[in-house]
Amino acid sequence: MVQYEQQQGEVKTVRKLRLKRAWSQEQLAQFSGLNIRTIQRIERGQKAGLESLKSLAAFFEIELDELLEEKNMESSDKYSEEENRVIEHVRDIKGFYSHLINYGVVILGLFIVNFITSPGYYWAWWAAFGWGIGVISHGMSVFEVYSFFGADWEKKQIEKRLGKKL
Question: What is the pLDDT of residues 19-28, one digit of tens each?
Fold first, then answer.
């Protein structure tokens, strides 16, 4: 039976092994024969079936125990914390670029529809303006142009509630 403590090690291990090979979740799913949703669930820390874990262990050519091992030493290591922070930041940047591309494609589509249906009045500007504010805010947050609620704020709030310095 897979225990909760092992799940965290499993998540880090699968994500690390995948990123080490520069594969997307889709590629790992295709290569390992698993469903993309299964890969996503495992990397999010949800429980995985024993057969899925065996399949991943066999695919990565490691023992199942190695895939499930708890990373106690690594989780207390400062490098590991920095590594996790960087991985999260890169994921945030990827999310922003995805948001930006979606914005460009949808707004372009809206302008085309606007031009075809009512060329005298460009109502698509309203959508571009409203959504554009969200995209700019997202970008400023991801690239830390402003940090009202950034890492410093979080640290101060944690210290305040704990009543001690971290």
Answer: 888 888 888 8
